[in-house]
Amino acid sequence: MSEGNGPGTADIENGNQGISVVHVSIPNQAIQVQPVIQANQPSVIQSAGNFQTIQVVRVAAVDEDLSSDDSEAKKRREILARRPSYRKILNDLSSPSKMDDDSNSSQSQDGQDSFVQANTLQLTAHGDATPATQGLQTLTMTNASPTSASNSTGSTTIVQYAQGPDGQFYIPVGGTNVQAYQIAAPGSLAQGVVMTSGSPISSPQHMSEEGSRKRELRLLKNREAARECRRKKKEYVKCLENRVAVLENQNKTLIEELKALKELYCQKDA
DNA sequence: GACCCCAGACGTCAGTGGAG
DNA sequence: CTCCACTGACGTCTGGGGTC
Fold first, then answer.
1. d(Cα A188, Cα A110) in Å, to the nearest integer?
2. Where is the signal peptide (predicted)?
3. Which end of chain A has fewer CB within 10 Å, C or N?
4. Is the shortest CB-to-strand distance from A229 to strand C under 7 Å?
5. Mean pLDDT of residues grouped by 10 in chain A (270 residues)?
6. Cα A28 off chain centre by
7. Chain C bases near protein CB atoms (7 A cut-off)
8. What pLDDT, on a 0 to 100 scale, did the predictor assign at position A215?
C-alpha cells in the first residue's frame, strides 16, 4: 500500500502470471462492502489491523494461457525450479504481502521500496558523550528496508560503532536504545560469543589494524544483510501463503461453478 | 517463583553466484 | 581473479506460555 493512502484507497498491482491484485483499505468502522466480482474472479476479504483489506484477484493469464503452447509453461516451471533469491522472486512477483499484520501493514509496501538494495554506505562522525565511545562512528545504510532492524529508521539503517585509542572497537549493546557499550576487541566476534564475551580470542598483534577494521565492517554489513534476508524470506513466505489462499479460493469457486453447470445439465437432460 | 519448552530473532560463518 | 551481496546452517539469546 502506498504511504499516503487514506481510508478508502486502493492499490492495483500487476504481478506475474497475469494476476492482478487490487488492495482496498477501508477503516474498520461501519463498512458495508459489496465487491462486484465476476464469477471467475474470486475475492479474498481479510482484516488487517484496523483495516479491512479486500483483495480482488483476477487470474487472467492463468486461465487464458491454457490454450497457449507448452513452452511458456515449461519456461515458468524452469524458473520455479531454479529457485532464485528471494529478492529476484519477489521482484518478479512484485506483489509483496499486503495482508501483513500490525508490524508491516503501516509500512510502505508498493513493491518498490520494500526491496531496494542496501547498497550505499555512508560514514559520518557522531558526537557521543560516552567516554568509551568518543568518536562514535555511525554506519548509515541508506535504502535499507524500512521494516528491517529495530535500529532502522525510515529508509536508513544506522549501525554504530566506535574505535578507542587502543584500537579496540566499541559496539552499542541493547537493541533500539543505545544504553551500554561493550568492548569488542578485534577478533573477538567469533561465532556464538559475539556480544556476550568481552574477552578477545585471538591477539590483536596478529591482525593489523586495517584488517580488523575491515573485518568489523564486513561483520556489520553481513549482520545487516542477514537481517534483510530474513525479512525478505518472511515476506516471501507470506506472499506464498497469500497466493495459496487466493488459489484455494479460486479452486472453490470453480468447483461450485462446475457443480452448478452439472445440475443445469442434469435438469436439461431429464 | 522456579523450571522447562518452544518459537522467533539475532550474529556469524561458509558457500555461491554475479559483476567488474 | 577479486570483491561483494545473498542466503543456508548453526549456535545463542530472549520472551511467552505451561507445569509444578
1. 41
2. none
3. C
4. yes
5. 33 34 31 29 32 30 34 38 52 44 34 33 33 39 34 36 44 34 34 32 54 85 91 88 91 96 88
6. 25
7. 5-13
8. 86
**Which residues in range 6-35 of chain A are in contact with strand C, contact meaning CB within 7 A of any of its atoms?**
none
Between CA A26 and CA A52 the distance in angstroms is: 6
How many angstroms is C1' of B18 away from CA of A175? Answer: 33
pLDDT at A261: 96
DSSP-derived secondary structure for A96-164: --SS--HHHHTS--SSSTTS----EEEEEEE----GGGTTEEEEEEET--TTS-TTEETTEEEEEEEE-
The pTM assigned to this predicted structure is: 0.44
A182, burial (CB in 10 Å: exposed 0-12, middle 13-18, buried 19+): middle
